[in-house]
Write a structure and sequence with these properties.
With about 250 residues, the protein is of the alpha/beta class. The protein is built from six helices and ten strands, in the order βαβαβααβββββββαα. About 30% of the residues lie in helices and about 25% in strands.
């Protein structure tokens, strides 16, 4: 029985140590195709390295809200656009250079994967907008942006940094979590920390249908701290302190 393996990676946010760990793991497991669901470069200490790894992989990339921010500051963002965010944005743009910004311009709103046994629609927030949010415990969430999707068998979206799945309008929705900014969604808010674990997912397609495996790959907290503190990223000390040591 032929099995097609599709890796879904998302939300690297400029963390190449995490991205390298995820890529090493998916190459060890073996996949036929890789799709990135967006938010690849903005936020972390290694945007240029992530951009280089994306080019080497040659994978299709969906445009996320943080990617779009690097091209243009939105006038109506649902997330706060703070002075600190803008400082990191300007540093990231300098690190990427024109070639990195051109790479972002090649990202697309959605990516479609058509296999014999399944049609897959990949996006960042929802098929409609990279800003849409869907998480299981959010009482104000609406399914409307995810319905009437055109008969796809699987919907793949990132944005919320949470590994989970749900059946929506006859399709299996899968969020692979975050490669670069993973965290425990159930930790106390007064002790919030990011986790040095790269999250991603593998979709299995065969004649029986679809299957999904969620993967979590640890990487070096010490190397991450060194990369942040030596990067020249604005507010590096504060960013380094946001991570929880294993």
């Amino acid at each position: 029985m032929r099995v097609v393996r599709i890796a879904l990676v998302s939300d690297m946010h400029g963390n190449d140590l995490a991205f390298a760990a995820a890529v090493a793991d998916l190459q060890r497991v073996g996949v036929d195709r890789i799709v990135c669901l967006g938010d690849a470069l903005q936020g972390g200490a290694q945007p240029a390295q992530v951009a280089a790894r994306l080019r080497d992989l040659g994978c299709e990339v969906v445009l996320g809200n943080a990617d779009a921010l690097l091209l243009e500051v939105p006038a109506d963002s649902p997330e706060p656009v703070t002075e600190r965010l803008l400082e990191v944005r300007e540093w990231t743009r300098r690190e990427l250079g024109e070639s990195g910004l051109e790479l972002i311009r090649s990202f697309t709103p959605t990516v479609e994967v058509d296999e014999d046994a399944a049609r897959i629609l990949c996006f960042h927030g929802s098929p409609r907008s990279y800003d849409d949010v869907l998480i299981p415990e959010w009482e104000s969430a609406t399914l409307e942006p995810f319905l009437d999707h055109g008969g796809f068998d699987l919907l793949a979206g990132g944005h919320t940094h949470k590994q989970w799945s749900r059946v929506l309008d006859g399709a299996l929705f899968v969020n692979p979590g975050s490669v670069g900014l993973a965290y425990d969604h159930h930790q106390p808010q007064d002790d919030f920390r990011l986790t040095p674990v790269a999250e991603y997912a593998i979709v299995f397609v065969d004649r029986l249908g679809l299957g999904v495996e969620f993967r979590r790959v640890p990487y070096s907290y010490e190397e991450l701290q060194a990369a942040i503190l030596e990067s020249g990223r604005p507010h590096a000390d504060e960013f380094a302190a946001e991570w929880r040591a294993p």
